[in-house]
Each structure stands twice: as C-alpha cells, then as structure tokens.
Amino acid sequence: MEAELAQAVILDHDANPRNFGELADATHSAGGYNPLCGDKYTVWARVEAGVVRAVHFHGFGCALSKASASMMTEAARGVPVEALPSMRSRLFDAAPTEDLLALVAVKDQPTRARCALLAWHALERAVASPVGE
C-alpha cells in the first residue's frame, strides 16, 4: 500500500473509529495501556461458541493506536478465539484486510508497532476474561 493511501486509511479510522464505545452485550472485556506514550483502551467482545461475534473499544491514544483498534474491531469479527494470537502475530506480514495493510509501515519501528498492537493484545486478554469473573 502506498504511503499516502496508508496515511489516509489511518486518519480515516482515527477520525471515524468503527465500533467505538462500550458493547452492551459483551461477554468479555479487558484493558490495554502503553506507558511509553499513554495510550489506554478498553476492549469489549461478544464471544459465542468460541467465535468472536462483535468487538468494540473505547479510550484514547495516538492516531495509530486508535486506527488499529478500529480496524481490529472489523477484522476480528467471525474469527475463532484460538486464531486471534496468530492473527496478531502475522498482522504486519499477512494483513487479513485491505485497511490493515496500512499498518505494515510500522513493522520495523518498535515503538510504533507497540501502539498498533495495543488493542490486539487487549482483545486477546479480553477473550480470556469473561465479564463478571
């Protein structure tokens, strides 16, 4: 993906985040915090029969972390819970959606990669943390 297009995708998801706000019927939730830059998000998921059916997030952070969280809410829908870690670990090499290709540019920038992966790690913790437990 060209740099200008990647920047446009990131800025669009930052300005118009998808699935932003608490998920009323969430079955799982967890938070994520990056002390290096102050990004902080809560991720809610509805999991049914081991499959992610919906993901929402809320919080604040840089454009990259917010855009990545927004993209994650769309990409994770319909994914089996056990596939989430491999999806995250391959994110920069085999982006599962066109929008996620915008994140490849930060692959070799550890600080920026942490921002991009913050919500993904929170989602993995969320699916291991049922609401109310």
Explain the overall architecture:
The chain is α+β, with helices and mostly antiparallel strands. It has one domain (3-126): Sufe protein. Chain: A (Alpha-Beta Complex), CATH 3.90.1010. It contains four helices and three strands, in the order H-E-E-E-H-H-H. The chain has helices spanning 3-15, 63-75, 84-89, 110-126; strands at residues 28-34, 39-48, 51-60. The longest helix is centred in the C-terminal third of the chain and has 17 residues, at 110-126. The relative contact order is 0.22.
Defining traits:
alpha+beta; 133 residues; Sufe protein. Chain: A; 20% strand; 4 helices; single chain; three-stranded antiparallel beta sheet
